[in-house]
Amino acid sequence: MGGRDAELPQLMARLAHRQRVYVRSGRIPSTPGGLDGLRAAVAAEAHVVIRMLWKDWEQWASDRSGPASAQQVEEALEALTAERAVELMAWLAAQCLVWPGASFMARCEADAVARRVGQLLGPDAHWWSTFDPELEGCVSCVSACTFDGLVTGTDGRRFVVLIQVGED
Questions:
Q1: In what helix (H) or strand (E) does residue 51 lie, and over which residues does it extend?
Q2: Three-state SS across 126-145?
Q3: Of 64, 63, 65, 115, which is closest to residue 85 (Cα–Cα)?
Q4: Strand ranges, E, within the chain
Q5: Residue 3's pLDDT band (boundaries 50, 70, 90)?
Q6: Which of 116, 96, 82 is nearest to 14 (CA)?
Q7: How far apart are CA 129 and CA 117, in angstroms?
Q8: What are phi and psi of 62, to 5 degrees?
Q9: At what angle do helices 4-15 and 82-94 cross, to 10 degrees?
Q10: Which domain of life is it from (predicted)?
C-alpha cells in the first residue's frame, strides 16, 4: 500500500480514542452482488471492530448476550449521503455520546480529518450508519452497550469503519 492507500489508515487512527472510538480501514474483499454485496462486506468489517470493542466493554455492557452478528449489523445500517457521513464521523470522533459537552478531540480537527477521509474514498463512495436523527441518537445497540454510533463507507475497493461506544 502506498500513497492514498497508506493515508487512509493514518487518518482513521487520528479519529480513534482509547476505549471509546474504535476504527478500522483497509481493502474490501471482492464482493459480488452490487450495492447489497458492498453493504454486507462493510457490515462484516464493522462486525470485526465490534468484536474487538466487546473485549474492552463486556463487563460494562448493558446486554450480556453480546454484540450484534454481522447480519444484524447489516440490517441496522441506513444509507447516508457522503456529506452527512463525513459530518457524523467527525461528530462521533469528537463528541461523547454519553456525556454531552465532553469531547475526545477538537471538533475542527475531527472535521478536517473526516473530510479528508471522505475525499480519499471519493464522490462515488457509499456510506451507511446506525444513527437515527429522528430519535436524536444512536439506538441500534450493535455493540450491546447502551450507547453506540457507527458510520462506515466504501469506494468499492477500500472501506472505513468508525464506532463510538459507551455506558452511563
A1: helix 34-57
A2: EEEECEEHHHCEECCCCCCC
A3: 115
A4: 21-27, 78-80, 126-129, 131-132, 137-138, 147-154, 158-166
A5: low
A6: 116
A7: 16
A8: -75, -20
A9: 50
A10: Bacteria
DSSP secondary structure code for residue 60 in this structure: G
Cα-Cα-Cα-Cα torsion 52, 53, 55, 59, nearest 10 degrees, comes to -160
147-154 and 78-80 as β-strands: parallel, antiparallel, unpaired?
unpaired
Alpha-carbon gap, residue 112 to 130, rounded angstroms: 22
Quote the CA–CA distance of 131 and 139 in Å, as a whole number: 7
Angle at 28 between CA 153 and CA 44, to 5 degrees: 75
Q: Average pLDDT for residues 63-71, to the nearest whole number?
A: 82
What residue ranges in 19-157 does DSSP mark as E strands?
Answer: 21-27, 78-80, 126-129, 131-132, 137-138, 147-154
Domain ranges of the chain: 4-161
pLDDT tens, residue by residue, 75-115: 999 999 999 999 999 999 999 888 888 999 999 999 999 99
Residue with cell 473530510: 115
Strands 78-80 and 131-132: unpaired
